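Hi team,

Below is the intake form for Signal peptide peptidase SppA from Aquirufa aurantiipilula. Please confirm the fields before the structure is written into the shared record.

FORM ID: S-0412
PROTEIN: Signal peptide peptidase SppA
ORGANISM: Aquirufa aurantiipilula
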Amino acid sequence: MWQFVKYTLATIVGMFLFLLVSIILVAGIGSAMSSSDSEYELKENSILKLDLNRPMGENASNEDNPFSDFPNPFFSSTEKIGLIQIISALERARVDDKIKGVYLDVSFPIAGYAQLSEIRDALEKFKKSGKFVYAYSNSYSEKAYYLASVSNQLYLNPAGLLDFNGISVQYMFYKKAFDKLEIEPMVFRVGTYKSAVEPFIREDMSPENKEQSLSFIRSINQVIFNKISQSKGISVPRLDRIADSLQAMNPHNAEKLGMLKLSYWDQFESLLKKAVKIGEKDKLTMVKLSDYLHAKNPIPEVEGTKKIAILVAEGEIVGTRGGEGSIGSDDFVKELRKLRDNSSVKAIVLRIDSPGGSSLASDIMWREILLAKKVKPVIASMSNYAASGGYYMAMGADAIVAQPTTITGSIGIFAQWLNLDNFFKNKLGITQDHVNTHEHSHFLNSAGRLTDFEKSIIQNMVNEGYESFTSKAAAGRKMSLEKLKSIAGGRVWTGEQAKKIGLVDELGGLDKAIELAAQKSKLKSGEYKVAVYPKAKSFFDTLLESATSAEAMEMRWAKSNLPWAKSVFELDRLKKREGFLAMMPYMMELE
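The structure came back. Fields below:
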């Protein structure tokens, strides 16, 4: 099925490839001739506009997509916004005399609660400078309101909508689809709570999975409601009643409840003009994030060469070679060794945002982290996720820092295999046959059935993998194996819960991890620079990479234009997950 789709799409892609490459060449020449790298001239009484209605990554290019308004079937017009860039801009704006405040444009942020918490903390710090933070939107999602509630003034369009009803977690299950397609999933796991295999063998959540899921979303919800309560002066019990009764869905009720104020855009614009002390007929000076990061930095550059390096590891752990939105052990090890051997780098902060993946790749990276910390301090900083294979990486560090809303733990191993024999034979009319030199020569060589003996071999390997994972975790956390196993078993925890049970050392964001790294390397404030690795790819680098990868172009075109193709790609992704995995529950959506 995938091959048919692939060849069909390749034909379509070929029709447009020449045109696309021509566009890239012309745009590249234009970009090279432009002054995009020149310093942005910042005006007095400027307002930093943070448009957070885009997918958020840990590290992204400062450049905007010049083709954002250009209709095309092959590359996304919505580029990621980088958390590290947002935090850096807010720290600069805090001491920049030309920036008078922040306008927060956030309706539906595509980000995790841990990332939003980092931004929220940075905005709190920004407000302490005496400058304002105003938020305005036509509607607010649950996540958007959590972030916007930190504002001095929070406004909603009178005809808008506030989604405030608590947090839900949703999983997608494939068992019935597999039954209809005559696909037999075979799973091997250790741990009562290792629920990543459930979508393939169940139609709903197991009692254990419901227990752990309810536990961690309650923990996250408590953190969020506590912060909203502090910002808005509304008690948590009252917020609970508002959420349960959906009172805030009506914008006028939300205003009466003290959650926000109602305003049309022109009225809000007048409020901004008053805040920066300009006339009603004067024009506001709004500065977008990418432009501000190209303006003169008001923070003096640190002299000398001492650095604390932030090494970003973001995405699913896929094996030796990673790609867009994934982590490969070869790529990670190469970067880490460079930092380990660089004498100017005095400490390393691992910034992890990963639900896990390949257990082999996780172990390779864990080993390299142990070698690095023999040379210099290594601190793990957890973002939205550092679970299973993500935790495998973190446990090798000198210390672990997590946000209270981080999802972590999930210490466990599983393997999966799809028997496609009946699917091929009965649904597609395809049969297979083979000859062997030995009894098990065909073992794991095709998508066929496994004998009971072969299943026992895989289960034993999964058991051994779990023993290895838990033993290394116990050593890393300096606790007994018995205690470690009592909180492992594949169970997912929030950062706040993990701190209480000893899986995490400190609660906080990236700034806290940098602070710990400086302490351990005996660096004082003002003695070091912070550098981020690997360097974020520019828009044109990403575009050129996509253009030279036929498969990437095919996938982007299909997902944008063929609704049914998403299911095909998802099934292909599931098939590629066969093997030994250290991964958290699949398809988790928090809202």
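SUMMARY LINE: The chain has a mean pLDDT of 86.

Thanks, M.
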